[in-house]
Amino acid sequence: MNMLLNILTYIFLISAQRLEVLPFALLGIVMLVLVFFVRFQMRNTKRIKSELEILESLHKHNVEYEFVLEVMRLSIWHFDTITGKLTFEQDFREKGNKYFTNVDGMPMDESVMALDPRDADRVRKALSDLCQGRMSSYHEIYRVRVPYDNSFYWEESYATIAERDTEGKPTKIIGTTMRVDERKAMEEALVKARNRAEESDRLKTAFIANMSHEIRTPLNAIVGFTSLLPDITDDAERRSLLDLVNENTQKLLHIVDDVVNISKIESGQEELVMTTFDLNMMLVEAMSHFAERLKPGVELNVEFAQESLTITTDMIRLSTIAKHLVSNAMKFTDQGSIVVGCDAPVDGRVCFWVRDTGKGIAEENYERIFERFFKVDEFIPGAGLGLSICRVMAFSLGGDVTVESKLGEGSTFRVDIPIK
């Protein structure tokens, strides 16, 4: 710039000395001014272009920033430790502030009061430690209550100290919060899957242990008694051994049938076969299989609300349920009675039941007895599959099996199913 002024001054002096070159001097001055103006405009244009590029970059950054926040459903918030006010810079939480109309400017204590009581004290202490400078960062996962409802949703928050005063005490906290309902649901599903896997492993172990014992018992009897047959010459003794072999063969077949039945039903390989029949007659026929095997001092009776009751369902499955319940009652009833009954239909459903005067069941085992291989008394023969099969079959018919019992006073098993 100084050089340009010097040149102009020089030209002016020369022009004053030689008036004949004045037009050329003026033209030179104009040219120099034009050159200066063009260069100035070029520099200005370059500066403006650079500033526009910076603004565009900032705008792009803001768009990307907001996009990330929105995709991750995050909120950015600030807490002023001096005023105690909580403010939100951005909030893309799904339904994040739907339930609170005055979140911006809300005192931190008031916002913590919205949390589930199970998490509120823990979160309040962590925030207090951060605001007092006892911690440099904060991370909590907690439940937020929904007003006027018993439900809640999950949130996860991170925070750190953004500014401090001259004494080093925090004056501003910056944090981020996001909804994590889907992640918590996934975690719960994984926990359930793990529990199911562990339960499956436990059941497999129980299956092997029970089956090895239950199958070995009748199998040992069959092998032992058949090995004695060639040496027995007395017809009565041979007949007695053959009866024992046949009895244990039936036990072995019964165990195998139970395992096959429950596996077929749960795998969906066995379809329902709907037939119309008299429920009372079916129950009487199911009882007849056990009449000769009753213990001395035990009676087997019936108690029907109607003389005849025609229903439509899968008769084979219903008969299997009845047989398992009567067989179960016989195992635990040493004296008294076993009664098979049927109530009158109500609202398209019918209930038949088996009541005994046996040992009874403790209340804490009401549901456990329907688990596979669970046995209240390990000394009672059986694989622990009967009641589990009853419930699975009842479920397949759209019904259920429940129990009412008192220790020492007997039990009543009720089968409730829909009828057509």
Concise synopsis of the structure shown:
This protein is α+β, with helices and mostly antiparallel strands. The chain is built from nine helices and 13 strands.
Features:
5-stranded mixed β-sheet, Heat Shock Protein 90, 23% strand, elongated, 3 domains, 6-stranded antiparallel β-sheet, Beta-Lactamase, 9 helices, alpha+beta
Overview of the structural elements:
β5 and β6 form a beta hairpin. The protein has a six-stranded antiparallel beta sheet, with helices on both faces. It has three domains: 63 residues; 108 residues, Beta-Lactamase; 150 residues, Heat Shock Protein 90. The longest helix is centred in the N-terminal third of the chain and has 50 residues. The protein has 420 residues and is α+β, with helices and mostly antiparallel strands.
CATH fold annotation of the largest domain:
Heat Shock Protein 90
- The computed structural class is alpha+beta
Counted up, domains total 3
**Percent range of helical residues:** 40-55%
Instruction: Kindly estimate the percentage of residues that lie in beta strands according to DSSP.
Output: 15-25%
Please state the CA-atom Rg, rounded to the nearest Å.
44 Å
CATH class call of the largest domain: Alpha Beta
Question: How is the secondary structure organized here?
Answer:
Elements: H1 2-17, H2 22-71, E1 74-80, E2 85-91, E3 106-107, H3 108-113, H4 117-131, E4 137-145, E5 152-164, E6 170-179, H5 181-228, H6 235-267, E7 274-278, H7 279-288, E8 298-304, E9 310-314, H8 315-332, E10 336-342, E11 349-356, H9 386-396, E12 400-406, E13 410-418
Parallel strand pairs: 8-10
Antiparallel strand pairs: 1-2, 1-6, 2-3, 4-5, 5-6, 7-9, 10-11, 11-13, 12-13
